[in-house]
Write a structure and sequence with these properties.
Blueprint: H1 3-29, H2 31-40, E1 62-66, E2 69-72, E3 77-80, H3 95-108, H4 117-130, E4 134-138, H5 141-156, E5 160-164, E6 191-194, E7 216-222, E8 224-225, E9 231-232, H6 235-248, E10 251-255, H7 266-271, E11 277-280, E12 291-295, H8 297-300, H9 321-334, H10 337-358, E13 363-368, E14 371-376, H11 392-404, E15 407-408, E16 414-416, H12 423-439, H13 441-444
Parallel strand pairs: 3-15, 5-6, 5-7, 7-10, 10-11
Antiparallel strand pairs: 1-2, 2-3, 4-12, 8-9, 11-12, 13-14, 14-16
Length: 446
Amino acid sequence: MSSSTSSTSSTQAPLTAALQAATTRFTTRNPRSAALHASALSSMPGGNTRTTLHTSPFPVYMKSGSHHTVTSEDGHVYTDLVGEFTAGLYGHSHPVIQQAIAECVGSVGLNLGAQTAHEITYARDLCARFGLERVRFANSGTEANLHALAAARAFTGRRRVVVFGGGYHGAVLGFAGGKVGRNNVDRGEFTVVVDGYNGEGDGIEGWLEGEGEEGVAAVLVEGMQGAAGAIPGRREWLLEVLEAAKKAGALFILDEVMTSRLSPGGIAELYGLTPDLKTFGKWLGGGLAFGGFGGREDVMSTFDPRSPNALSHGGTFNNNTLAMYVGHAGLSKIYTPEACVQLNRMGDALRERLQELTKGTKLCFSGMGSLLASHFTEEGLEEIVREVPENAQLKDLFWYEMMEEEFWVVRRGNISLILGTPQEELDRFVDAVKAFLERHVELVKV
């Protein structure tokens, strides 16, 4: 028996006991949430309409949010580190966002069934901020990626798409574990999953071969994998992927749905990448549903309705007035380049403190800037470069106990910082992590 196997066996019973005790405390602390979940089961499958939020034995129900905090139906006030999975950048009651909503509803109105001048303003500012020649709006990051792929296929006359294991490009474009999700579109031969993010594993070159429809239309990649656990792409590797795509005549599509908040011009600017197309979503709606995709004018012209052969791109809420006004207000008045740089420096400092604290344990933190994630690996990895197996029980225990410390965190480990979160709360989080490691030293030591 190896030392790692022996260590795992010796800690299994106490870990199970600690987790059972934490689960009991969780149930005791949240009776109202338990009752609401039981009620939800009568009208929704599993009592849920958003899989990401499902947790056992039941989810915590939130009643309200204010600034950087959320309050549960059971009366607990949490510092919000979920940040709506990067979409909640502005918190829950930013006055600029509230004013934009009030002005839009009061002076413009909803569902006008027409184009408005403000969508031009927002489009121009997005193009300027993220280096786009043309942009179109959608309702989510999922839609943005689907339309970007449609553009690539129409522009190149090819069908196949290369993606990477651990990648997540929307509800119907997930590739966890290097596999095509069961509910994915394009499950057949036209989607190729390369199990080698950051060059760890299969190379990309062999997948880029093919002619005509059998050729590769696009390589779709995240500059930092979000759902896999805030795993930064290596700049040199991303540049190699870009060059390989270019050499093969395929388009390089950079999914910036999450990473567009990591620098004033997104991760593309940070790494010096020049994608053919970029996709957006999350925070750019200012808290409302939003999607966008853009890039080269010649590629985006596949959607130009003045052309008889244009791709159709409908969507009742693509240019809805609320998202146009509120999203633009957030980008132009709140998340200025200066504010962006400051928040991401704060996130880097937090991650570095946590990494120093967790050395020699099964816990580590990955990420960039204001986006990070916790990982529990048996090997005690200090750097995560691709999707890796993790100790699910330790992740659950950490989740339960961080909530007891009044931190609202994602069970899978992602942390998305909210503007205006006091430094004192981040300091308190570091202290909570330290206390967790000290409390469970025998469970987390490598």
